[in-house]
Structures are given as structure tokens and as C-alpha cells.
């Protein structure tokens, strides 16, 4: 019985460590939303990607689809390097019918280009993840 309990604790600790390593978050959706907004504002792809699950839906000019976490981070990094942020402001956010949190904002580059940003944060199996990220040129 003692060996079984020790094994169970080890497996649970391993799961918690693995979940943290893959960017899964137990944070409330509003906290994740604030962190993603801040990362977009500063053009920090790594901080945005921290909140991706194993796969994420992206809709960027020239890049649309479902990507692995690593592919998605590269796409976001490339976008930020070509479109350096001047500002990002949240215009609206709220709960969706399925319980997820959506955020709509305006992103302006240092070159004066404007993008409408939409992202969706979902809680999947107890993990809060950035499920969808979209930048649409205005």
C-alpha cells in the first residue's frame, strides 16, 4: 500500500511538472487574457506562446490554420518582427456561449498599419489555453 501511494504521488507530480512545461495554465482566463494582451503590446512572441496548448488556431495575413505550439510561436515571432508594435488596446472582451473568453483589440505597427486582433481563451481539461489568435489587416 505504501509503495502504491508513493507511486501515485510521483505520477501526479510528474503530470503537474509536464503540464507546466507545455505551457498549460491553471490561471483564470482573465489573467491569461491580461498576460496575452501585454505580450502582444510588447511584441513578445515567447510570452504569447506560453499560453498556447499543444495546437493553436492562427489566422494571420498569409498564414492560416492549426499549428503546433512551436510552429505557431515562429509565425507570431515573424509577424512581430515584420510588424513591430506601436500600440495594442483591448476594445472589448467577454464570455462566449461555450464559457471561453474572447478579446477584441486594435494593434498598430510602428509603420502606421492597423490590425484588428481577436483571440479566444478556453479552459480545456482544467487547463487555460490560448486557443485562437487572429490578426486581420484593417
How does this model look, in words?
The protein is α+β, with helices and mostly antiparallel strands and 138 residues long. The chain has a single domain, classed as Nuclear Transport Factor 2, Chain: A, CATH 3.10.450.50. It contains 4 helices and 6 strands, in the order αααββαββββ. The chain has helices at 2-21, 29-42, 45-49, 69-82, and strands at 52-60, 63-68, 85-95, 101-109, 114-124, 127-137. A 6-stranded mixed beta sheet has the order 2-1-6-5-4-3, with helices on one face. The longest helix has 20 residues, at 2-21. It is globular. Residues 16-22 have low confidence and may be disordered.
Short description:
It is built from four helices and six strands.
Amino acid at each position: 500500500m505504501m509503495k502504491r501511494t508513493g507511486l501515485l504521488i510521483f505520477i501526479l507530480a510528474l503530470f503537474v511538472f509536464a503540464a507546466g512545461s507545455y505551457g498549460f495554465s491553471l490561471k483564470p482566463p482573465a489573467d491569461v487574457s491580461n498576460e496575452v494582451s501585454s505580450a502582444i503590446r510588447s511584441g513578445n512572441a515567447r510570452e504569447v506562446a506560453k499560453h498556447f496548448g499543444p495546437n493553436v488556431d492562427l489566422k494571420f495575413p498569409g498564414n492560416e490554420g492549426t499549428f503546433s505550439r512551436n510552429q505557431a510561436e515562429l509565425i507570431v515571432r515573424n509577424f512581430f518582427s515584420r510588424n513591430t508594435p506601436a500600440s495594442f488596446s483591448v476594445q472589448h472582451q467577454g464570455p462566449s456561449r461555450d464559457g471561453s473568453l474572447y478579446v477584441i483589440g486594435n494593434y498598430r505597427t510602428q509603420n502606421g498599419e492597423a490590425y484588428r486582433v481577436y483571440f479566444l481563451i478556453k479552459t480545456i481539461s482544467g487547463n487555460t489555453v490560448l486557443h485562437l489568435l487572429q490578426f486581420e489587416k484593417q
